[in-house]
Amino acid sequence: MIDKVKNGFEIRFPLYKLVREQHNYLHVKVDMVSAMDAIVMAKTSLGHNVLQLISTVDRIEDGVFQITWILENYGACTVLLISADFPRENCLVPSLSQIWPAASAFEREIFEMYGISFPGNPREGEDFLLESWKDTPPMRRDFETEEYAMRVFGERQPREHIDPRQYVGDIVGEWNTPMGRKRKEEK
Amino acid sequence: MFANFSSIALTILGALTWGLLLGGISRSVTARIHGRMGPRVTQNFIDLWKLFRKTSSIHHGGMFWMAPMFRITGAICVLIMVPLVVGQNITYNMSFAGDVFLLIYIMFFGCLGMALGAGNSGHPYAVIAVSRGLAQMSSYELSFSIAVVAIAVGLHTFKIEGIVAAQQAGITSWNIFRFPFASAGALLAFLPMQMAYPFGIVLAPQEIPIGPPTEYSSRMLSFMFSGRALFGVAKLILFVSLLFGGASSWLGLFVKTFLLYMYPVVVSSVFPRFRTEQSIRFLWFIPTTLALVDLVRVML
Amino acid sequence: MYCNQPPEKPGNKKELLEKITNMARANSLWVTAYGTGCGSIELRPLGTSRFDMERFGIAMRPTPRQADVLIISGYLATKTLKRVIRVYEQIQDPKYIIALGSCTINGGMYFDSYNTLNVLDKYLPVDVYVMGCMPRPEAIIDGFSLLMQKIKDGRAHGWKHYKENLDYYRENQKKIITDWDLPDYNW
Amino acid sequence: MGVNPATDPKKTTHLFFGPQHPGVTGNMSVEMWFDGDQITKAITHVGYLHRGFEKLMEKRLWIQNFPLVCRICVPEPDINEECYAMAIEELTGIEVPERAKWIRTLVLELARLAVNLMAFGGQGGTLGLGTAAMWGITFRDFVLDLFEELTGARIYHIYIQPGGVRRDLPQGFGGRVEKVLEKIEKRLPELDRLVLNNAIFKLRTQNVGVVKPEWIEEYGLVGPVARGSGSVRDVRKDAPYEIYSKLEFDVVTESGNDIFARVMVRRREMDLSISLIRQILSKMPQGPVATKLPNLTEWRVPAGEVYSRVESSRGEYGYYVVSDGSLKPRRVHVRGPSYVHAVPLLERMLVGANIADVSNIMVSLTTCPPEIER
């Protein structure tokens, strides 16, 4: 089953990169221009017509966002992951909300978490998970969550630190170790 | 005159106590059906005192404050018009000829006052609940009224005292046996009156938390609770007088009201709610038809 | 009109009456049905036959107007904090807060999260903390009995503290809720 | 620009359903406009439980994430541990011993049974049948007792780890599981009579909250929601993980499309879980239960990307895990089944629904907010 999908990609997108392959699992990487064509092809002619997830990985060292669309074929229970790299600056990714109504929610979340815009999504910009967020989008790699938490929520009270060796020594060792016996004698 | 007033005061106090106690027992019974221990029997008194002593800073206009008073007034009116125990004149309070009609009106009146006050609170859930409640009330009042009229016509009296007196010739002379269809209709209408499930659409906590009293708190809520307790007892006594031959002794009154009170409690713990239109359809068809059957039989 | 005035400062009440009332308050705690976090999953078994909180007069009320206790069942996201403040201020006096879980005490495992509070005490006056992640129903009952004891002794006045130090709490709350659009004090 | 008829303030009422609302599943809210009793528009608001898990996971070691993942789904945490552990095993190639696989399946099925008990009773609870909710949660406590014995915790177990499970079953555990199953089986018919044979329950649930079969592929519906509409999709059967290929079972499916069909699916899943647990207990082999892991503080998972799938009580659960070969994961994206159920599907289903059925529909989809927001 998955061979058919692979053949489809080989014919249509000869430059695709194979990331991972199993008997019911295929992960391919295409360039950003042909991502939409690949998704449409997977939906219309390869039978992978269910959108499960749109995910993003921030590859800050390469200066790209890797967007992954996870498509499923319910009949054969096979998964197809299509990835594409988009430049990190002013990132614009085509929206799928006209094809799958469920895509709108995923895209709203990604807009909030990464600041990636999906032109064509009618509900983009509505609050989804966060409310009135003014900082860097939180899921970007250059957002430091601990520093932010310290700044906004304040430092939490430091925990009372107990050195286990000393703690146990106070209870047990006082009588059983040479030091303890000595201390006892001194008392 | 003084004896009359003191007996009225005693009636109200006694009814409040008995109503709260019944509420506590019913909570225990429901808990046992759930498989739990349940609260203390006196829990409702504690709740009432706590609510009474809570501060309140909510204000939604004059009608908002009036609503629990309407309810209490309605309850008290019903209570002092129904004779409690047959043969003891002191418990007859203000019984007079033709009081059946007034009773039906006054029972409606308390609920209408509630509706006005809850509507004034401006909370959308309260408004939804009021519209649901009034729709349902107009349908159960119909069957209840027809049932009462059937009984009254059959016994040739519009006085509760007369209705009770006509049932004193042994158990078979009770109206529930003489007018079985009208009684069935009235008893079915008793469930929505007590807001028991499956007719609990007014106070549905999972849909409209929790209906008309949404905005009521502290002292207002305590008045509303006592109003509900009083009204509950008033309705019980009315039903006992209408259908179950009245009470010939204090013990009989307690036993009969207790058993009658447990009927909606048990029914409501094994049924989910109707939707508004389902509830109205049910009430328009089944209890009304049943009551009409007896009315027609009596008329012929 | 009514929400923009500062709240009245509570005065001293008559002693004996207050004592009797405190007994009633302790034995009839009504809880707002608001599951603010994951700890609310243990509130459901609390109502069933094994734990049965109704024995102690604890009952769930669907609306804050009729409740006495607000249970903060776990971490508070900033978006929830706004709603919780609103709910808390709508509860009529006297009112109490029980906070469940380690994450309300000092942030717990979410100490570096960008969206959860670290120390709940800065934003709302907590009467009883129940530790654990998540606290067992027995622990929650223990917390309730502690609160009952505090009420009986007349020591549970978090609500008084909140009214007297409203400025301090407001300042902290407004630091987190950047788009503050609530009334200054909503009753 | 005319006024949208669905939100016209002159004709419709604007209402917030939640988050402080006893009928809402967890901490989420639905903003809705309604005309009379009919809802004209609904918008789901989530994010009240957003803890930034995916960000926190990037800041923790691979093994430190196990306490985090289980908190993504409160009623059924094991599914997250399983899914995350499967992804790590796929990336590193760690072999899971045979007995560990059986124990994992046992734990997953026990958790599924517990959740279904709660959801089955809870469906009655939303309609005012408090007795059913109380009984369901009481029966669930028996299963939680088993978890407590096995893992030490009632809710968050942190029992599954990469390459096996944390510890072996205690002595005589199978017998106690069997006892609990018998106890539940004995009492389930009573719950059935209360819920499924109840005329008013049927009246409230049949032909209400219809999920059309064509929506399944349009929205990507999974689990009981899809199976209540005639789908036969179950990851346990279609892409078997652990030892599901060695167990005998049929996928539960109903064709009613409505809430009652979904309730029936959950009810029959309970029977299925009980039968699966019995099969597991009778066939479980002996052997080790965990592979030795390297030094966990310096454990580098090889670079790679993997999407692992598990069937939870609410449907397919997916973890998209990306590793860049460092000490910490690069990205863990959790795809909970409630995501599409609670946001796009609920918004669509509520249009035209009665206001009395909102929480009814919501509970029938078993929306679980923490897995949407993470």
Q: Please state the overall shape of chain D, judged from the principal axes of the Cα atoms.
A: globular
Q: Quick one: CATH class of chain D?
A: Mainly Alpha
Helicity level of chain C, as a percent range?
25-40%
Class by alpha and beta content of chain D: alpha+beta
Q: From the 3D coordinates, which CATH architecture of chain D would you assign?
A: Orthogonal Bundle
Question: Which range does the strand content of chain C fall in?
Answer: 5-15%
Integer tally of domains of chain D: 1
Strand content of chain D: 5-15%
Sequence stretches where pLDDT stays below 50 over 5 or more residues of chain D: none
Integer-rounded radius of gyration of chain D: 21 Å
Mean pLDDT of chain C: 82
The structural class of chain C is alpha/beta
How would you explain this protein's 3D organization?
The complex is a heterotetramer of chains A (187), B (300), C (187) and D (374). Chain A has one domain (2-156): NADH:ubiquinone oxidoreductase Nqo5 subunit (Beta Polymerase, domain 2, 2-Layer Sandwich). Chain A has six helices and five strands; from the N terminus they run H-E-E-H-E-E-E-H-H-H-H. Chain A has helices at residues 2-12, 35-44, 103-114, 145-153, 164-176, 178-186, and strands at residues 17-22, 25-29, 50-59, 64-73, 78-87. A five-stranded mixed β-sheet of chain A has the order 1-2-5-4-3. In chain A, a hairpin with a 2-residue loop joins strand 1 (17-22) and strand 2. Chain A is elongated, with a radius of gyration of 27 Å. Chain B is mainly α. Chain B has one domain (2-299). Chain B has eleven helices and no strands. Chain B has helices spanning 2-34, 43-53, 62-81, 99-120, 124-155, 160-165, 175-178, 180-193, 218-243, 250-268, 276-299. The model of chain B has no long low-confidence stretch (mean pLDDT 83). Chain C has one domain (28-176): Rossmann fold (3-Layer(aba) Sandwich), CATH 3.40.50. In chain C, helix 1 (15-26) runs antiparallel to helix 5 (137-152). The longest helix of chain C is centred in the last third of the chain and has 16 residues, at 137-152. The mean pLDDT of chain C is 82. Chain D has one domain (54-333, 357-373): Cytochrome-c3 Hydrogenase, chain B (Orthogonal Bundle). Chain D is 46% helix and 13% strand. Chain D contains 14 helices and eight strands. Chain D has helices at 53-58, 66-69, 78-92, 98-126, 130-151, 173-195, 199-205, 213-219, 223-227, 235-238, 259-283, 338-350, 358-364, 369-373; strands spanning 13-17, 29-35, 38-45, 160-161, 164-165, 304-312, 315-323, 331-335. Chain D has a three-stranded antiparallel β-sheet. A three-stranded antiparallel β-sheet of chain D has the order 6-7-8. The longest helix of chain D is centred in the first third of the chain and has 29 residues, at 98-126. The two termini of chain D are 38 Å apart. Chains in contact: A-C, A-D, B-C, B-D, C-D. Chains A and C meet through helix 4 of A and helix 3 of C.
